[in-house]
Model the fold of this input.
Amino acid sequence: MRKSFALATEPHVAELPSLGLELKFLAEVMGDEYLDAYAEMRDMQKAETGVDVDDLEGADVEKVKAASSGLRVFLSRLMLPESAALITRVDVVRGEKVVNSFQSWDEAKAHAEKVKGGGRPVWALRLPDRVLVELLEWTVELYTGGRRPPTSSGGSSTASRKAGTRGTGTSRSKGSTRTAGRSAAS
Done:
């Protein structure tokens, strides 16, 4: 038996027509690379902002804004270099003039504090948080087949429920019920 597997060779493109811009993503990403990047982003978000990107409902709006930096870094790891540099670039502006540019929010913020006459950091590519979250969801679809990486306890719960449900319909339901009972008690 023989089976062929196709690998994507052309970059994935996220179109932003209102900006006349395309963000280009890697054609293929190895599973461990994606999982590592996703886990790092998720852990950083929880540690620094208390925001869980797997559960944004009810999250404080200000904390979600603070989380956008980590989300941008995550997305950049999946992009071609030109797009990656654009999504992570932070300009320091005074008035409406760009004074300097950096690839990290923290560096830009530190520089902005030293600018005579007052400076402030702004994302070079201004995107609503909802678009960043949509890009995150799109990468999940592209690189994992639509399944969230198994880094949350919610993912474990779902798997356990499926296992318990399958066991109740078999002829060994008595044994399955005991197993399900132990799972529920623990």
